[in-house]
Amino acid sequence: MTLLQIMPEDAPETVRLRTDDLDVIHKELLRIGVRLVRWHAARRLPADADDTTVMKAYKSHIDHLSAEGGYRIVDIVRMTPPPADTGQGRQTCPAHEKFLQEHVHDDDLVRFVVAGTGCFYLHVAGQVYAVLCTTGDLLSVPGRTPHWFDAGARPSCTAIRFFQRADHSAIRFLPDGIASPFPTHDDLLATPGN
Predict the structure, then answer these.
(1) Are 80 and 155 in contact (CB under 8 A)?
(2) Rounded to an integer, what distance in angstroms lies between the CA atom of residue 36 and that of residue 39?
(3) Residue 138 in contact with residue 75, Cβ under 8 Å?
(4) Predicted confidence (pLDDT) at residue 90 exceeds the cutoff of 60
(5) What are phi and psi of 7, to 5 degrees?
(6) Is it the case that residue 91 has pLDDT exceeding 50?
(7) What is the pLDDT of residue 8?
(8) Pick from 41, 46, 73, 187: most CB atoms within 10 A?
(9) Collapsing DSSP states into helix, strand and coil, what is residue 19?
(10) d(CA 112, CA 121)
(11) pTM of the shown model
């Protein structure tokens, strides 16, 4: 289930809006220049589909979006749980840990969730928009929008990424990032009503 939760940047415990209504989500995100659309595969994908199979299943969508946005590089990223739970709290893959910190990209952030879930937190106009994306969601966020990403303590997310430049639009981390006090991916999923 796709979900949007909006919170003031200085009061993460205050929920201004929480909804899974796609029409409301589209409207709220469009106000800040963010696009969320749904894609459907040309054919049913097996759970263990390899990258080539995934790319073929979404080829028409990928080709259209790449031409429209000038995306020259398209790849797949897979986030999986760490190998062992040590019982020491939140376990994250070191490669994904950095995305939990607030940062910006020069180019647009464009991600399509092939399988699983992931939460994009967008810090815009004094508010944080937590967009919990699920299988079939394509999120397009304007470049230089402060954000962070969380796929949970035991991540299960496969996504197609779109880039305009080979350097993948270098990440710049914000020294005064605000990510830490906001509800995590897992908190959002655990909240009643999901």
Answers:
(1) yes
(2) 10
(3) no
(4) no
(5) -135, 145
(6) no
(7) 98
(8) 41
(9) strand
(10) 15
(11) 0.91
CATH number listed for the domain at residues 3-180: 2.60.120.10
**CA 165, CA 169: separation in Å to the nearest integer?**
6
* Other C-beta atoms lying within 10 Å of the C-beta of residue 117: 23
What would the 3-class secondary structure string for 100-167 be?
HCCEEECCCEEEEEEEEEEEEEEEECCEEEEEEEECCEEEEECCCCCEEEECCCCCCEEEEEEECCCC
Which token pair is 63? 């080709």
Q: pLDDT for 103-149, tens place per residue? A: 999 899 999 999 999 999 999 999 999 999 999 999 999 999 999 99
3-state secondary structure of 32: coil
Question: Rounded to an integer, what distance in angstroms lies between the CA atom of residue 57 and that of residue 29?
Answer: 27
Coil vs helix vs strand at 186: helix
CB 156 within 8 A of CB 113: no
Q: Which two tokens stand for residue 189?
A: 């999923």
Query: In the chain, what's the furthest Cα-to-Cα distance?
Result: 46
Q: What is the mean pLDDT of residues 177-190?
A: 96
191: helix, strand or coil: coil
- Rg for the chain, CA atoms, rounded: 16
